[in-house]
Write a structure and sequence with these properties.
two-stranded antiparallel ribbon; elongated; 9% strand; 2 helices
Length: 68
């Protein structure tokens, strides 16, 4: 999960760290990264808005490298 931000910034970051890949980006040959969001996909489409707010608040407080 990435913190709230612009899709383009996330794509740029993934392209910089995982060159010559896209949709999906892969890490260590077995971790696949795909971007889905409310505008272009179905991410959170069936979630209660309060639950989405809790997730976003958790992501905002997570320290780099910390899993939640």
């Amino acid at each position: 999960m990435f913190p709230a931000g612009e899709r383009a910034e996330t794509v740029t970051s993934l392209d910089r760290h995982l060159p010559q890949q896209r949709d999906p980006w892969t890490l260590a040959d077995n971790f696949y990264i795909n971007i889905d969001d409310e505008q272009t996909g179905c991410l959170f489409s069936d979630w209660d808005p309060d639950d989405v707010a809790v997730l976003e608040a958790t992501m905002d407080t997570a320290q780099p490298g910390q899993c939640r």
